[in-house]
Amino acid sequence: MGVTEVPQSSRETDKERADRNFTELLQSARVAVTGVQVLFAFLLTVPFTQRFVNLREFDRWLFYVALVSAAIASICYIAPANQHRMLFRQGLKEKLVRRSNYYGIIGALALALSMTAATMLVVDFLFQSALAWATAGGLALLVAWVWFGQPAVNRFGRSDEAPTTEQEEGRREGADPAD
């Protein structure tokens, strides 16, 4: 398969690519951070309810995992915007883009853990342990596939589709294909 030549006028510079990638990362973080903050805020109120004292020790540990992982997810999703403010005009945008991508992945892992633990806590409190474990296991498998497995297959697996112009451009310039 031949490489499609991209006209010089439509090629983006490294700076333009870093700006575009950072904007895309911030947009995806905006979607996630709202959900994380709602979950985190809800979890912060739970211990102050009357029924919290009825939780067994196992459920209290589930709550702890849900709360702390929601805090970690919040920190990771907010970090890129804060670091952008701290590093403004320092010429470190490409480093910030790569770091922000890692924070997004860590934030997604923490969010998945928090959602799974919180759901398991509620199901265990309302019904029984076996259903809670089955529900949490199902959620964990779904998140693992939809958020991580399927993208990994697309990223590292073979594709019968022709590469996009952007992918070809990245290969010629040695850029990360995930950009």
TrEMBL record:
Identify the stretch(es) annotated as Disordered.
Answer: 158-179
Membrane-spanning parts: 29-49, 61-81, 102-123, 129-148
Which InterPro entries does the record associate with it?
DUF6328
What keyword terms does UniProt attach to this protein?
A: Membrane, Transmembrane, Transmembrane helix
* Basic and acidic residues bias spans: 168-179
Quote any Pfam family the record assigns.
DUF6328
Spell out the protein name for this chain: Uncharacterized protein
